[in-house]
Amino acid sequence: MKYFLFTINFFLLSNLYFSQQIYPINTFPENLPPNSYIKDINNDLGPFIGNWSTIYEGKKMDLSIVKELKRSFKLPNSTHSFYQDVLIAKYTIKDNSGIILQTNINSVNNNDNNFIASIAIKGNVVHMYYRGTNCRVGWGTINLKQIDNNQVSWSYYPNSTTLTTTNCPGNQDTTIYLPETENLVFTKQ
Q1: Is 48 exposed, middle or buried, given 0-12, 13-18 or 19+ CB atoms closer than 10 A?
Q2: What per-residue confidence (pLDDT) applies to 16?
Q3: Residue 7: what are its φ and ψ, rounded to 5°?
Q4: How many domains does the chain have?
Q5: d(CA 43, CA 67)
Q6: Does residue 7 fall inside a structural domain?
Q7: N or C: which end of the chain has fewer CB within 10 A?
Q8: Confidence at residue 112, expressed as pLDDT on a 0 to 100 scale
């Protein structure tokens, strides 16, 4: 019986000691222990989830936002991984004839062109990272602000990229189709 109780206590204590540490969604991962989990404890990301739509300069943009739990990340120049609940945004942009100009529906990985994922949330604004299109043109930040339960505003801030034949070989399409504007209103569908 003593052996049985000792074994149970050992497993319970070791589970507590080795269990993954959980931190709230706005925690910066730089100083966290390896394999920490930055969790959306209060469902702060919830209001942004759904299908959204807008028209900008004659083009229709459909945005589908989902929450991915426990996505694995690694900090630059580090061997330690951490996990975080994030929003993943998929979009399709069509011209006024319905022809698809650009989509990231098939992007699944942080290194895919046109990949968009949340990086932080403050109040009713979620900050997202956009990887950019071909040759990383247009990479930058997208801020989504919750206006109410049925509307969000979009502000996109692209960074500049210097293109050379070395970092962008061939004749790739480097057009930025995302709306480069502030406070563009999307309506929930």
Answers
A1: buried
A2: 45
A3: -65, -45
A4: 1
A5: 10
A6: no
A7: N
A8: 79
- Name residues whose C-beta falls within 8 Å of residue 84's C-beta, 6 or more positions apart in sequence: 25, 29, 37, 38, 39, 70, 71, 73
**Within the chain, how many helices (H) and strands (E) appear?**
1, 11
Cβ atoms < 10 Å from Cβ of 55: 12
Q: Which residues of the chain have pLDDT under 50?
A: 12-17
Question: What value, to the nearest 5°, has the Cα angle with vertex 109 and ends 173 and 29?
Answer: 120
Residue 31 is assigned to a structural domain of this protein: yes
Domain that holds residue 138: 21-188
Do the domain assignments include residue 155?
A: yes
Residue-level pLDDT at 9: 54
Q: Which residue bears the tokens 């943009």?
A: 61
Say which residues have a Cβ less than 8 Å from residue 4's Cβ, sequence separation at least 6: none
Q: DSSP assignment of 159-185, as one string?
A: PP----TTTS-SS------S---SSEE
Would you say residue 14 lies in a domain? no
SS3 call for 21: coil
